[in-house]
Amino acid sequence: MRGRRSLEPEHKLNEKITAAEVRLVGENIEQGVYTRAEALRMAQDLELDLIEISGNAVPPVCRIYDYRKFLYDQKKKMKEIKAKQTNVTTKEIRFGPNTDDHDFDFKLKHAKAFLQEGAKVRAYVHFKGRSIVYKDRGEILLTRFIQELMEYGLPEQMPKLDGKRMFIIINPKKK
């Protein structure tokens, strides 16, 4: 069944509409509430389809329009909406509580690149075994990381300890 189009339309059309009265909207018609038979006759006179747009409304909202063109317009709108969406990715950077300056600078350079691309950065210090007693070192490291990245992004919150990890999330600055 994959790859085939559904034979069943996703909207009720013409005779499939069961409501006794419908509210008509659209161009080239007098908008208002009509009986189903009257709305169908109007659609046939214009050689178009009666399409139920909102079946939950009382009375259901219908439109007199060419169904194929209606589907085309809907697909076009969905494509525009999808194109306008921005997909935010989150990049992770891991530190140890005893991270050296060279490693810090290397990871800082990567974080700057991620923020300039528009991605969020989630930086964390992972404490192994007994290194959890150096929580203050982790907090100092992450605070320094935030200060270095201030011109590229803003933190969501201050460093927070979650289990064996202390983390921060940095959002990129809007351009």
List the helices and strands and how they pair.
Blueprint: E1 21-25, E2 32-35, H1 36-45, E3 49-54, E4 61-65, H2 67-84, E5 90-95, H3 101-117, E6 120-126, H4 135-148, E7 153-155, E8 160-162, E9 165-172
Parallel strand pairs: 1-4, 5-6
Antiparallel strand pairs: 1-2, 3-4, 6-9, 7-9, 8-9
Task: Please give a handful of descriptors for the protein shown.
single chain, 175 residues, alpha+beta, Ubiquitin-like (UB roll), Translation Initiation Factor IF3, 2 domains, five-stranded mixed sheet, four-stranded mixed sheet, 34% helix, 27% strand
Provide structural commentary:
- The chain is α+β, with helices and mostly antiparallel strands.
- The chain folds into two domains: 14-81, Translation initiation factor 3 (IF-3), N-terminal domain (Ubiquitin-like (UB roll)); 90-172, Translation initiation factor 3 (IF-3), C-terminal domain (Translation Initiation Factor IF3, 2-Layer Sandwich), CATH 3.30.110.
- The protein contains four helices and nine strands; from the N terminus they run E-E-H-E-E-H-E-H-E-H-E-E-E.
- It has helices spanning 36-45, 67-84, 101-117, 135-148, and strands spanning 21-25, 32-35, 49-54, 61-65, 90-95, 120-126, 153-155, 160-162, 165-172.
- The strands form two sheets. Strands 5, 6, 7, 8 and 9 form a five-stranded mixed sheet that branches. A four-stranded mixed sheet has the order 2-1-4-3.
- Strand 1 and strand 2 (32-35) form a beta hairpin.
- The relative contact order is 0.11.
